[in-house]
Design a protein that fits this description.
By secondary structure, the chain is mostly helical. Helices cover about 75% and strands about 0% of the residues. It holds the Pfam family DUF2784.
């Protein structure tokens, strides 16, 4: 039971991280000091998507699920939990590159807005 609860906690943290990577620039518009957390998160998210490597949070969730006697998550976090929401069909490398580019585009747009508002945090 403890391992299953920990797996759910990792899942929720993972989902929060993915949402922060994709939409965190909107938070940075309101709280510019989050920039220093958001930029490394975006870099990591783009790296994981573009490289095709597995995310350590997925590996941790799988370990906890297996210890709890549950089936492991097949594929990446996005493949397993969000594919049905984001797009139909199987995740392909081309779609992963598209997702990485989309994350970059959203964040670049938001940071251009930030720059124009001159809301950069004081160093």
């Amino acid at each position: 039971m403890l391992y299953a609860a920990a797996a759910v906690l990792v899942l929720l943290v993972h989902l929060g991280f993915v949402l922060f990577v994709v939409f965190g620039a909107f938070l940075v518009l309101r709280r510019p000091r989050l920039l220093w957390l958001h930029l490394p998160a975006v870099a990591w998210g783009v790296y994981i998507e573009a490289s095709g490597r597995g995310c350590p949070l997925t590996a941790l969730e799988n370990l906890l699920r297996l210890r709890a006697g549950l089936a492991d998550v097949e594929g990446s976090f996005i493949e397993y939990y969000l594919r049905w929401l984001l797009y139909p069909g199987w995740l392909t490398p081309g779609i992963q590159y598209l997702l990485a580019g989309l994350v970059l585009a959203i964040n670049l747009l938001m940071y251009v807005c930030l720059w124009r508002r001159r809301a950069w945090p004081a160093g």
